[in-house]
Amino acid sequence: MKQLGLYCSRCSAKLPFRYQDMKCSCGGTLLVDYDLERLSKTFTKEALQTRYPSMWRYNELLPVSNPDCIITLGEGWTPLVRLQNWELKLPIKQLWIKREEQNPTGSFKSRGFSVAVSLLKEAGATKAAVPSNGNAAGALAAYASHAGIKASVFIPLDCPPLIVEECPLYGADTFLVDGLIHDAAAIIEAGKQEQGWVNVGTLKEPGRVEGKKTMGLELAEQLGWTFPDVIIYPTGGGSGIIGMWKAYHELKALGFVDGPMPRFVCVQEEGCQPIVDGMLPQAAMDLAGGASRPSPTGMRVPQPPDLPLILSIVKQSGGTALALSKSQIADATRTLGTQGISSSPEGSATWAGLIELCDNGWLRATDSVVLFNTSHAMKYAQLESICSVPRIRSYADYKALGY
Amino acid sequence: MKQLGLYCSRCSAKLPFRYQDMKCSCGGTLLVDYDLERLSKTFTKEALQTRYPSMWRYNELLPVSNPDCIITLGEGWTPLVRLQNWELKLPIKQLWIKREEQNPTGSFKSRGFSVAVSLLKEAGATKAAVPSNGNAAGALAAYASHAGIKASVFIPLDCPPLIVEECPLYGADTFLVDGLIHDAAAIIEAGKQEQGWVNVGTLKEPGRVEGKKTMGLELAEQLGWTFPDVIIYPTGGGSGIIGMWKAYHELKALGFVDGPMPRFVCVQEEGCQPIVDGMLPQAAMDLAGGASRPSPTGMRVPQPPDLPLILSIVKQSGGTALALSKSQIADATRTLGTQGISSSPEGSATWAGLIELCDNGWLRATDSVVLFNTSHAMKYAQLESICSVPRIRSYADYKALGY
Lengths: 403, 403
Hints:
The structure is a homodimer of 403-residue chains. Chain A has 403 residues and is α/β, with parallel strands linked by helices. Chain A has 15 helices and 14 strands. The first copy, chain A, is globular and about 60 Å long. Chains A, B: Its EC number is 4.2.3.1. Chains A, B: Its cofactor is pyridoxal 5'-phosphate.
């Protein structure tokens, strides 16, 4: 049995472990607390060397206590590919891309839901629901069905039809919501008690941040237990940034890595850029944003559940945030394509961000930079919808369908 | 520099290594010959333990001599997932699925083209062409563009539009052919000399079989240096079966694994089943096949380039071949979906084959069985074509486009 607790990322309060309701009374987000001093005696770099290449190799730093409850579909230990041709063309030292699309559900969301669903299994939960721009819904659907847990997923209706379609394939009750991701979240909150759902939305439970944390752990191990100088990451709800930041603090506490933390760069699409706006001084912020209609990608999260936490991480790390235009993102998809990489709009935005930060001199000649490609290009094809998924606006509409 | 040669899989003739034209004068297929006795001194199980989880960990058993020519996008070391729930329901001992869709191009084809394109790079070739039902075209396109080699790909026009569309994304000259895969191959043969293409079609060059071989190497290593009892594999041109068979002979020669070879089961779709027909006694064969119209999948190869070699492997291994119906394959996609696995029709056919071999008693209660999921379900969505790829019937049509 692991000795787990929770701590508040805002007020530092300590609480006993629980698998849902991650809001502290101060309004901050609760994160999982490990006894790192005790762990450091047996959890060593040497012990890792011969472990199987899965994100569960970091088992000691993951919150599932009963190994029989681990729900795995082959997630994590995705390749880190070096783009040497471009290192010669750009004013940086090293360039890497982390191929998160090679996860079991075709996106980085597999990681968080492997842990979240394992925790549900351990807790004996039988029903879970998530609001999602698509890939989180597919990941919950896949892991929940593997675990024998009923999943209900709520997706804005303009999201990519192929990603939507995967959810009923995995056996989830799937609904298209006439609204954005927070409208989908509101439906779940409205029905949570009546339906018996555990809400596994961003920062609502501890597993997704812990699962995303493994991206940071892997990256450090794949780079020979060093940190890159800069991580460019497509940011929506922010659990990836929070998770990787947490990973690096834990690795430092364990004595695995020395030296400065990476600078975190959040990329978003113009028109839905709360993190970019949040980094600006107040006067500038009032003028920014809102001009263009953002695309239905994982970056389109107008109201991240803990914006202050994301902003504090980006600022503390010496990072920055950038909003890219649709056409910059589309150009990036083509550029990555001709390097043999099929990148989602989110992954492409990291490339577009890289180019902009090279052009404006923010990146340094000594920087090693890591991009995250979070899904495949083809899953985003905007084709006529092929799915007969019901469309709803409210929890009342949901009920009217007979649930 | 590696001491490589070639040997004929039919007449056993030995030849110097070359990177194209794999047909022996006897009509057999030439395969790569390694000095296994010399290798066994340094290539050990222990040496592998701390190597990076990529298919290139088996570098000594791959034919690329110059490490600077290796074209890698993060291929291989895909997860092997155990399906324990189904072990309880089916009359077998162990059930595993190898998740080949988690390769960089979303299919098992990444492996073969990583090696084939590396060999092209090493040889200084600048243009390559392939006939393909889709996934091989995408893989050539991706690896060639990463290597700075020009790819031309020829795909039957009813193949899945999303897979087709990936090829121009990767920068390949892409053509839809009014015909089947051998018609596409004929166009390449007709234009090969004039266009300067290396034909990297199935068994035309040594890299693809060697790359596919790594599926067998990995499987043995992932199972603790043992062989499974049965491998169920979706078979079109047969390079995967040939590659895995070769892998297991090499592992036995190296002393890595003892015991009997796995029984190889080839699955195909009804209506295009040359391997299934080839396994029948002649009288039965004349009556078989041709009744239904086969789907445009990787299994639709009416004329495998070396059918006798595939048949001899299946027979020697004590295996079998099965043709599944469209509806059996569609049912299997749903069954795998509700286990959290998005499977291509080819991957689904392995599940359908499993069920049939359980029902008819061919599988034994002591058998450990491995299925191969070769690609994602969603890439096969039969939507209105979104690509403006030119359609051709002949090399003359190709020329008329101005090439």
